[in-house]
Amino acid sequence: MEGCQDLAPGLMAILAEGQRIGLIGPAPLWSQVAHSRSFVFALSGADSRPRLDLGSGGGLPGLILAASQPEISWWLLDARERSVTFLESAVAVLGIQDSTRILHGRAEDLGREEGWRGRFGVVTARNFGGPAETAECAAGFLGPGGLLVVSE
After folding, report:
1. Fewer Cβ within 10 Å of end Cβ, the chain: N or C?
2. Strands 142-151, 120-126: parallel, antiparallel or unpaired by DSSP?
3. Other C-beta atoms within 10 Å of 10: how many?
4. Is 104 exposed, middle or buried (0-12, 13-18, 19+ CB in 10 A)?
5. Which of 146, 125, 140, 149 lies closest to 55, judged by CA?
6. Element (H, E) at 75
7. What element of type H or E holds 41?
8. What is the Cβ-side half-sphere exposure of residue 31, based on CA atoms within 13 angstroms?
9. Cα atoms found within 13 Å of the Cα of residue 144, Cβ hemisphere only
């Protein structure tokens, strides 16, 4: 799997399991991982404020970002309990629980709550929804000068 050699140990196996249980789509996993890794490059100049991945599902791009940037505080958000359980296990296996938290809830609700509103310097989303819907959900989470990186 070209381009996947330098991922955190065990990450490809975790993502393969996520795909096997239906949390990651059926496209070849290596291509989805390569796509998700492009987020790392897109965020290379962003500040170090906490970051949020919307609709983390099976961990793309959230787990790749959190594992490759352990010095940054990451929050992976998903509304589905099944995804949250999977992500909590993945974070523990990867040993990134000090820098990565899993958040269970709906983005459109949490983004309006005082504790989450304006809290993040970066929000990412991959296949969360259409660009306008994603931007609307992400806006509440972003602090001043924050960056939204979206991919369909």
Report:
1. C
2. parallel
3. 13
4. middle
5. 125
6. strand 74-78
7. helix 29-42
8. 4
9. 0
Whole-angstrom Cα Rg for the chain:
14
Pick from 98, 138, 147: nearest CA to 116: 138
- pTM of the full structure: 0.94
Q: Are 135 and 125 in contact (CB under 8 A)?
A: no
Amino acid identity, position 116: W
In 3D, which of 109, 108, 102, 146 has the Cα closest to residue 124? 146
Question: Whose structure tokens read 């993040």?
Answer: 120
Which residues are paired to 95 by β-bridges? none
Closest to 7 measured CA to CA, from 29, 27, 37: 37
From CA 43, how far away is CA 116, in angstroms rounded?
A: 21
β-strands 74-78, 100-104: how paired? Answer: parallel
* Contact status, residue 125 vs residue 42, Cβ threshold 8 Å: no
Distances (CA, A) of 38 to 26, 68, 80, 139: 19, 12, 25, 22
Q: Dig out the tokens for 25 from the structure.
A: 């789509």
Distance CA 61, CA 16 (A): 14
